[in-house]
Every structure is written in structure tokens, then in C-alpha cells.
Amino acid sequence: MPFIPSEATLLPAAYTVAGFAGSIALLRLYKLRKWGRVRSTFSLRDKTFVITGANTGLGYETTKALVRRQATVIMACRNMAKAQAAIEKIRQEEQEERKGSKSSGTLIPMQLDLASFQSVRQFAGELQRTVPRFDCLVNNAGLAVREPEFTREGYEVHYGVNHLGQFLLVELLKERLLEQGTRVVVVSSRMHEIEAEIDFKNLGRWVEYGSRLNRLYNNSKLMNFYYARELYKRGYNVHVLCPGLCHTDFFRHYEPKWYHYLLFSPIVWLMLRSAEQGAQNIIYAATESVTTPECNPVTGYFISNVRMRRSKFHFDENTSIRLWDESVRAIERSSTSSTT
Ligand SMILES: NC(=O)c1ccc[n+]([C@@H]2O[C@H](COP(=O)([O-])OP(=O)(O)OC[C@H]3O[C@@H](n4cnc5c(N)ncnc54)[C@H](OP(=O)(O)O)[C@@H]3O)[C@@H](O)[C@H]2O)c1
Asked: Whose Cα sits closest to atom 36 in ligand 1?
């Protein structure tokens, strides 16, 4: 005889499903609260921000939020067509939302490819020539790839773009940044706490670590933190942060299978922030002074969920200084080989 579910069996099942869905929704609400938001809305008129990788993802959302607060934003992008498209999108959204009633800030696109020292030098030169003063440099641009990729100078891209490109940029702007007390924001990641090391033996080389994680990426995000520490020690006004796991173009090289969608969709929905949510951490770092003598990159503090928290990683001073020296050498090596 076929099984016909009775009310007595259907009702508990319905309660279980509703209870499960309710718990997920509550957990999501809890997460949204925990992720935090920037509450300040003061005007940023007369303030200039330079943001790398401003055309999409976290850089785009940061740009949008700052320009709405009337800032001038220099959008340092490797692809000028994408930068222009991003500007049009921001202006279009502004018009739709505000019907053009309140004036917002200024958007200036500039070409910067962090995978080329020549491009970094050109960008730094143009910035110094055309922008007499800027208040904040946001080193946001970054990537994670699955197949070997190298910069123009031959460094694997996690090291070359995520670390060395921004290292050279700051070096070239050094006097200006120190003289004007310009804030430097370093976008790292909590991945610096997971299976990350500064592998000096293989620095700049593509290495297969045989891990499920992209260790080259994690290592580069640890470099970001070490780098922020050294900047702080050397007198820069620096903030380091993790935006959290966010839904952006960052995962463009990841090709999920259909069953990944099935298995991971609920987890992803719970754990993944929108780019706008993740960008709150960058906006916070760029606009609020939260670094103190007690809480700063040297004492292991970084911004996460729009507040300061301490890294679980045990930093050591020798690694910090050695990474700096190796980075200087990597740049010098490339300058010498390009002139000989
Ligand atoms: N999304 C996350 O879950 C997450 C989590 C922790 C930390 N982060 C960090 O957040 C930062 C921004 O990531 P996102 O999520 O916004 O990624 P995204 O959407 O992929 O945006 C990355 C930006 O960096 C630019 N970029 C890449 N390579 C470049 C190069 N050689 N020169 C100049 N610009 C370059 C990209 O330009 P194109 O558009 O031209 O490629 C793009 O504008 C990265 O540093 C990343 O490590 C992200």
C-alpha cells in the first residue's frame, strides 16, 4: 500500500523546514550586524584619495562611497576603458538615486599597471605633476590566479602585483607621503593567518605548494601586513585591513562545478558579503583615524568588521626587515637589468 503522509507526519516536517530556514535567516542577520558599517557621513570635500583597482569590486564601492561624500578620487586602473565605464556607472546611479539634486565629488581616471615597474613609475610621475596634494593612498588592487602568471619584470604575480608593485609605488611617492602625512591604506586579508609564510627561498617564483589553498596568495597577504608594519615603523600614517570574504570579480579565475553551487550555496550566502559591505572596512581605514600607539600594525592590529582586532599571526622583526630589503633589491635588480 502506498505511503500517504498524514497531517501528523507533515506538520513536524514543515516545522523543521521552517525552523531551519528561520535559523539561517537569523544567522544571516547576525552576520550583517557583526560585519559592521561606517556610520560617519561628514563631507570629504577638499580631500583627495588615490585608489588602486578602483574600477570594480571593493575599489569601485570605496570610490563610489567617497565620491558621494564629495571627495576627489583618483582612480588608478590598469584598463582605462574599464575605469571610464565605472565612472559612467557611478554617475548613472547617482542620477537615479538623487535625481542630480546634491553635488558629489570628482572622479579622475589614471592608468596604472602594478605588474609593470615602468607603468608604476609613469603613474607616480604623473600623479606628482598633476595632483599637488592627496590625503590618502589606498593600495587595494590585487589578484589571485590559478595558473602561473608573471609581471613584466618576471616576478610571479601574487608577489609582483600584490606586494612589489605597491612597494615601488610608495617608494616613489615617499617624500610626498611623509611630508604631507598622507594616509596609506594596505588591503590585506585574514588569509595572512592561514598557511602563510614569507618563503624567502622562492620569493618571486611560481611554486606549487601542494595545498588546497592558494598559498602564493596567502603569502602575499602576509607580505602586505609585514609591509604595513615596516611602513608604520618608518613614520608613515598607515592602516592595514581585511575586507572579509566578499562577492567581487576576485574569483574570476575560479570555475565552480555545478555540485559546488549545490553544496556551497547556503554557506556562501551566509558567509559572503557584498562588495559594498566589504568596502566598509576600506572606507573606515581611509576616513577614520583608528591607529593608536597601542593598536597599530606593529602591535599586530588590523581593521576587520569595521573595528580593530589583533592578528593571530606571530610576526617577527627579522622577517619584517628582510622582506623590505629583498623588495628594495628586487626593484634595483630590475632597474639595473633594464639599463644594461
Ligand atoms: N574579495 C574578497 O573576498 C577579498 C577578501 C580579502 C581581501 N581581498 C583583497 O581586496 C582587494 C580587492 O579585491 P576585490 O575583491 O575587489 O577583487 P576584484 O573585484 O578582482 O578587483 C581587483 C582590482 O584590482 C585590479 N588589478 C588587478 N591586477 C592589477 C594590476 N596588475 N595593476 C593594477 N590593477 C590591477 C583589477 O583590475 P581589472 O578589473 O582590470 O582586472 C581590479 O580593479 C585585493 O587586494 C584582494 O586581495 C579581497
From this structure: 53
